[in-house]
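Mods, move this if it's the wrong board.
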Amino acid sequence: MTETTPQPRKRILVVSAHPEPRSLNAALTAFAVEHLRAAGHEVRVSDLYAMKWKATVDADDFPEDAVDRRLNVMDVSERATLAGRLAPDIAAEQEKVRWSDAVILQFPLWWFGTPAILKGWMDRVFTAGFGYGPKVPPPYGGGALTGRRALVSVTAGARETSFAERGIHGRLADVLHPLQHGLFWFTGMAPLEPFAVYGSNDLPEERFAAARREYGRRLDGLFTDEPVPYRTLVGGDYDHDMRLLPGVEEPGTSGLDLHLRPRG
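Not the wrong board. Structure tokens:
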């Protein structure tokens, strides 16, 4: 009998954003934590609603900055980050991201985006000097958080067909582009294809069981599945103004797919 080679032990941060602890999102978070730990990985969880996470960036995030100075968020966040003077809750979440080999975001799709509390986590945690800035490596494939993987696990009340090429909501890849490309890839994390549960407002047990099985498969491939093949900023595909060079794309490619490298 052939034995399966065990996967190297990894560290995963799961960030969960749903106000109801008995929700589908909470169940998927619990499943991911149990599944990953059973596989031998270390897991930390940031349950943003349980933490009562503050979602807005303001001067309180930079407690040692001069109160009479105009609040230029990028400049002050970089100063505070590099000097180790961020608000304690931000510093704690940054430490979790640094600790991790992969980040999983679990959330419901609300108005074609993340819940405000999760957007606030991104706004406050990925400060200049941590996630981006002139003193870290260039973005889009070589950023400060290079080496980490990222997975979106999202629930949507609408049916899957409505998020298709001709679906009324547009492709899920396009809806999630600001997160996949604009947060993960910009900071250097390698995003995987999203995992989605559709029709989530009324999910019978047999469909939930099927979703768990599929999610388990995706979690097993967290460090082996091929990431979304976005182009790198320094790979020769863009000009000095960050515009894709003419003729780089495959014939017939348009829209956000222009920023994908051909597979194979």
